[in-house]
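tl;dr need the bound structure. longer version: we got a ligand (ISJ) that a collaborator sent over and nobodys looked at where it sits. i said id run it. heres the input, straight from their email, havent touched it
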Amino acid sequence: MIGRVGDCLKEGLPFCIYRKPNQSQITAVFQLEDALHSVVDFSEKGFVFAPFQFENGAVLLKPDEIFVTQMENSEHSPFGEIQLSEIGRNDHLELIKKGIEEINTGRLSKVVLSRKLEAETKLSPPEIFTQLLQHYPNAFCYLFHHPKIGTWCGATPETLMTIQNREIKTMSLAATLPFVEGEVPQWKEKELEEQQMVSDYIRERLTGLMESLDIEEAKSVRAGNLWHLKSRINGKMLPKTSVNKIVSLLHPTPAVCGIPTQKAKEFILKHENYRRTYYTGFLGELNLNQATETSLYVNLRCMELKGQTASIYVGGGITKASDPEREWVETQNKSKTILHIL
Ligand SMILES: C=C(O[C@@H]1C=C(C(=O)O)C=C[C@H]1O)C(=O)O
């Protein structure tokens, strides 16, 4: 299957190859022509790749051929230390300060601010994907290609939603600390509050569309070299509730945008020093196996590949309690998820 993926990259044919969190099954969806199709109302069947600015349209890969295989377990060596570049530090610190100023005016309570960094790699996209699979077993790992969109890959810890029949599972994921072997993360008020804001937002958005909704207590979860706080959210949709409605209400969550959503989004578009495109968008299966089964993941810990250059995207949630220097270090730590692989 990996060989076929290499051929598609050479021939410019669209595909996505992926593995869901904690599973050994790898799936590849191939579209046999290079047309750019779009999602209209989420009743379609295929693989969706949506940008942060969802209003710009989400790409739909038509599932002309689907292949499934089991992952081979191979030995992988632990990561060594990597040298991080300080390029972009001042711009990012300025951006964070602007975000905090905006929060202090009372117009925003949270905003997620991000940046892009570049690295060179000698690995091919399929080799990078194979490395991601081996190193990040509890992430959604993928490699996506469309000749009219580009080549993206990543290992994301965040589920936007999975739906089977009317049962919906989502999560509230926020707050970051570095993983240290043998130590339990010590969360402070700032982080607990930041994660609670995401849970409250999801509850508010979904109430009225659900027969039931249960938000679990936040727990520490590991994502590579990092810890996050995560609450699992389970619900049952009312019969009249559509996937389209849920997606438009949840995306972009305050885990990747902010509160209130529209004002945070305007701030991001005005002040970030680049365009996010597909970073903090979402991707995944749409009615692929069964007509009522969907699983979508938030596009985090990801990169865009162009020749030997990888553009890596990283961000973090800013609240009134944020410290610019610590936020910079957090994006540096997040970049390691990808840099370790390259
Ligand atoms: C925005 C990112 O991650 C999000 C922001 C987090 C934070 O602010 O601590 C944690 C997990 C994600 O919800 C990213 O990885 O780029």
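gonna send this back to them w/ a short note. The first strand starts at residue 15 and ends at 19.
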